[in-house]
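thought: fold this chain, then report.
action: predict
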Amino acid sequence: MIPERLAMDYSRDAAESRPEIAVIIPSIRGKADRLVQCLNRQTWTPDEIQVIEGIHPNGRARNLGVASLEPLPAWNKDRILVFIDDDALPGSPELIEKMVIPLLGDEGDQAPTVGVSGVARVLPSSANWFQRRVAAEIPRTINPVPDHLIETNPPLRGYGHSLITTTCCALWQSTYHEVGGFSESLTSGVDTDFFYRVRSRGYRFVMPPDVFVEHPAPRNLTALWRKFYWYGIGYGQEVQRRPEQKMGLRLPTRLHCLGFITAATIWLFPNIFFLYSFGYPHFALGFRPLKSFSTYAVAWGYVASWLGRAP
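observation:
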């Protein structure tokens, strides 16, 4: 059960005990100016913003961002870290405030069981038809904005996700250090790996109501293939990194890889009408060509990771 005090009275009284807040923005192309402007107009303005430009992978960029923060003063033992991607934009000026409050205890310190707070994702109003189709066909591209606080924990066994991603989330810096920060050996999938380690220590993941970020979907087939191919690489790396979690098939030889990609190729066309993802073992009827295409891209990335061809 979620404690009653987390039912969210978003009163301005909470600002009296607000912690120090630092925002980390990984930005491959260095295009974060608009996001920084939005963050500086938040009701709870960040005390520090670090934009880390041109660093791969994302996990290393985020770790560098945390390491670049000003040292905490002796009287302040902790701060809130907000991770947000440079292509995400706050849906309201209360984004940081509403996202941080679930992390606070009665005295403004760390809530004992909440590890990560994150927000829903929606498409920007400028999204083109292709992006809207991607969002309609592919789960987790966007998610509904909750009207009450919800708990959304990643699984510790098998394949699955939290609704929260590092597109926009917040946690205490002490929690970040407790789990060892983000992996720098994963080329993709760094947030699911990080969230697994947070969850394995018993922390809960919560999503506050009525708050979201606008985040674009891939704009065309090339961008869609690239994105999900890299998802496949990260997925394969995670399966190899944590075999005890039993997240997916093991492909220890080239023959296994050939058999897997052959099966994925055979299934490409039927999967348009009979939705099946090897990560989620269930069927659903519909017409989802882009979902089938993205699943096929994941399969190729997955095989590439097992063949050792991932950068």
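thought: worth noting. The chain has ten helices and twelve strands.
final: tokens above.
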